[in-house]
Amino acid sequence: MEFKNKTEEELYIANCTSTFIKEMNESNDIQNLLDVGHRILGQPLMLVDISMCFIAQSGGESVKDEPFWDWILTNGYVKEEYTNLIMEDDISTEEKFVWEYGMENHRQLVAKIIQGRTTLGYLKLLEYNHKITDIEKEILGNLSNLIAILMSTSSIKYKFSNSKVEAFLESLVERKTTDASDINDRFSALNIRLLERLFVIAIEPVSKTELAVEQLYLLKRKLHNLLNRPTVFIHQNRLIVLFDTSATSFEEDYNYAPLMALLKEYKLQAGISTQFTELSLMADEYLNALSALTLGKRLGLKDTFIFFSKHILDQLILTYTDSHNINYLIHPAITTLDKIDKEKNSEYVISLLTYIRFGQNLTNTARELHIHHNTLKYRIAKIVELTNIDLTDYDLCYHLYLSGRVWELQNSIKNT
């Protein structure tokens, strides 16, 4: 369509928008609105949520040579490689429109469906019948704005909303549901079968930056596909997984390695709760998973998985240090040896701590420290001489062990 001047263009855009508004007022239906958009724009339209799940389309049945559209119309969601491509792009950009290339035989103009600062989905216009003009781009933008109103105000719960399972799990971590019998009954009604050992996994970026909402939903879809579990949900801008397994430990589950690979790929870190069996404990275990993440950030840990159970002593020490001087927990012998190490570049502290951790076994300790058995024997004798400690005293050895962990945490905090 050709226009004589700018005024005619603006009048045409206004008339199209008026047509959209009339349809919206009459039907209050997204599908009808897309049908009008298809008639006006003359190109196939598709609406998906932020996890790339299909919501509605118009004109897609006429597309004959576009595998991407055929797949999503058949299956209701995008292929894994498309999700990977989207994750690699800066989907959190504030730009209203994005051109998509690569996965399709025809390029797509994508308009974000935005309500306030929240992205609800994407409206895709396939450049199939003719080249998309600037006027059509503006019309698509107006259409996306009206769809945003429908998606945010309609009583219909579109696919970007939490499922019943996700909503129920979120109520557990928020302690809205606490009665054990009621929790089990409701979970059974959702037809979810869990294996005997449970863990809560809390996932967030290794860096201190938060994930954009679009990234959260795409990663949630990836976790759904990888773990084949409906128990993945978003809470407080984190990905949360209720992870069940029949393996004797979390590390022995067959999903351990692929999950680690996914988290590493997207620079994510996971806090793992202690093992539990009753869903009524999920809120407490959620807090344990968060505590593991907080500890990892505080100590600058780069581990992909941070297990709360492996850092319980660290949690107790750091809780104490929040209101007390950490040096009060360190035995004077460690302080003395640390001072000597710094002056003479010796390794008395690490030798003593390793010796205690290995149950005062000279052979195993020497192997761990990569020194000769006799060298270690001489070094331990020298440590006893310098500090006058009695290594046959069980309580003293425990105090030294605790002091060693405090000393290591102190150094870790200094280096972060």
UniProtKB/TrEMBL annotation:
The CdaR GGDEF-like domain, residue ranges: 178-294
Family named by the database record: Belongs to the CdaR family.
Biological source species: Pseudobutyrivibrio ruminis
Domain PucR C-terminal helix-turn-helix, residue spans: 351-403
InterPro entries in the cross-refs: CdaR-like_regulators (IPR051448), CdaR_GGDEF (IPR041522), PucR_C-HTH_dom (IPR025736), PucR_C-HTH_sf (IPR042070)
Organismal lineage: Bacteria, Bacillati, Bacillota, Clostridia, Lachnospirales
Identification of the protein by name: PucR C-terminal helix-turn-helix domain-containing protein
Pfam families from the UniProt entry: GGDEF_2, HTH_30
